[in-house]
């Protein structure tokens, strides 16, 4: 019995719990797989969702060693709540915003969305993707006019699914998520100047910084290997860490 308890404790000590924006799901799973190949005794347990919802969970005491957000706002929220130390924050990547929908639709600017029917948008109150989309629509003066056509999704993955299934004419989502769509295609790339810069900060939580396994994985997230994986999923990373990659890789 004592041996079993010791083993159970060892397994728990090797766990790294990560709360990450839903748009990072596929990339983070591959990064975690690459990491555990190097450190097979460690287990990365990921919880994906809207950045705001995850931040509130952490604030309320949900177990998490690392937090990966789709904007800096929610990291600052957790710093103010005492759940993250400001010096434990690093920006991993960037992203862009696109409109996806069925092939054949004519969408050359966001103003063209006024001629469409239902449009999926991530809820701006819970996820950064919705905030960026609202900023862009406001910038071209069509957000208020589209209010009756907007279908609010919980996160970017749900918005892509709506577009894939044809339940909406299209959706405003991150490019990294759009590349995972099965049916919907990218119809328009939103100019970056229409919204705040899209960045993905990662941070150790106050409990995570005391977990050496979490610190090790946090460092791996900043490695060239991790950045190349992020790049392969459509995220924007520093070009200097990708010297051997081509557009086809």
CATH superfamily of the largest domain: Periplasmic binding protein-like II
Mean pLDDT: 89
Rg from Cα: 19 Å
* Beta-strand residue percentage: 15-25%
Query: What is the SS-derived class?
Result: alpha/beta
From the 3D structure, determine the CATH topology of the largest domain. D-Maltodextrin-Binding Protein, domain 2
SSE string, helix = H, strand = E? HEHEHEHEEEHHEHEHEEHH
Helical proportion? Answer: 25-40%
Q: Enumerate the spans where pLDDT stays under 50 for 5 or more consecutive residues.
A: 1-13, 240-249
Any guess at the CATH architecture of the largest domain?
Answer: 3-Layer(aba) Sandwich
Main β-sheet: number of strands, strand sense, barrel status?
A: 5 strands, mixed
How many separate structural domains? 2
Strand arrangement in the largest pleated sheet: 2-1-3-10-4
Number-wise, the strands total 10
Q: Treating each run of at least 4 consecutive H or I residues as one helix, how many helices?
A: 10
The CATH first-level class of the largest domain comes to Alpha Beta
Q: Which outline best applies?
A: globular
InterPro entries: ModA, ModA/WtpA
Subunit structure: The complex is composed of two ATP-binding proteins (ModC), two transmembrane proteins (ModB) and a solute-binding protein (ModA).
GO molecular function: metal ion binding; molybdate ion binding; tungstate binding
Keywords: Metal-binding, Molybdenum, Signal
Task: Describe it.
GO terms for molecular function: metal ion binding; molybdate ion binding; tungstate binding. This is Molybdenum ABC transporter substrate-binding protein. This protein is α/β, with parallel strands linked by helices and 249 residues long. It folds into two domains: 2-94 and 198-241, D-Maltodextrin-Binding Protein, domain 2 (3-Layer(aba) Sandwich), CATH 3.40.190; 97-194, 3-Layer(aba) Sandwich (D-Maltodextrin-Binding Protein, domain 2). It is built from ten helices and ten strands. It has helices at residues 2-13, 25-38, 51-59, 72-80, 128-139, 143-146, 156-165, 175-178, 212-221, 224-232, and strands spanning 15-21, 43-49, 66-68, 84-94, 97-101, 119-122, 150-153, 170-174, 185-189, 199-205. The strands form two sheets. A five-stranded mixed beta sheet has the order 2-1-3-10-4, with helices on both faces. Strands 7-6-8-5-9 form a five-stranded mixed beta sheet, with helices on both faces. α2 (25-38) links the parallel β1 and β2 (43-49). α3 packs parallel to α4 (72-80). The termini are far apart. 42% of the residues are buried. The model is unreliable at 1-13 and 240-249 (pLDDT under 50).
